[in-house]
Amino acid sequence: MNDAVLIVDGLVEAPLSLKFADFAAMPDSVQVADVSRFASGKAGDAVTLESILALARPLPEANHLTLHANRDDFHVSVPLADIRAVGLLVYRLADAPLDVKKGGPFRLVLKDFTACKTSELDDCANVKFLDRIELSQRKGRDTRPLTAEEHAALHAKEHA
Ligand SMILES: Nc1nc2c(c(=O)[nH]1)N[C@H]1C(S)=C(S)[C@@H](COP(=O)(O)O)O[C@H]1N2
Ligand SMILES: [Mo]
Hints:
Layout: E1 6-10, E2 16-18, H1 20-24, E3 31-32, E4 45-48, H2 49-56, E5 64-69, E6 74-79, H3 80-83, E7 87-93, E8 96-97, E9 107-110, E10 132-136, H4 148-158
Bound molecules: ligand MTE and molybdenum atom (MO).
Ligand MTE binds at residues 41-42, 69, 72, 74, 116, 123-124, 126-129, 154, 158.
């Protein structure tokens, strides 16, 4: 699991491929210990999404950020301007890489999120098993459930 990589690509000056050790080595100023302080019900230590974007350097025409989880084919695409200040990349829990059972090895957690389906930055956008962050001009792939029935079915599958 320590070899798992998070890809950052699309409309960026410097595409990235980041591992646990890369996140752990980032400066204290961008580390966010214990995200449960900001995101109720979520757990682990993170770095800010902004610090990752600072390394990748989105091009001026990048307007959207898409969070890809190929493990279960779940994808969320939101306006870059909305997510950049509130996104946290959780990579560690109790001094170990974030377990897949907790949505690891990498999980996006929003500092502030609304109830499911009430805004772009809702609980559903807290993407587990995150393996790729893609910057694009237009909105990218978004597989969040649209109806209450689809949403209930997804949660039933998640917690099965
Ligand atoms: N990869 C992936 N991430 C996901 C989901 C999913 O099905 N797959 N479900 C989303 C939905 S709909 C919600 S409400 C939250 C639930 O997060 P929790 O299990 O920490 O409460 O995870 C989100 N992240
Ligand atoms: Mo959700």
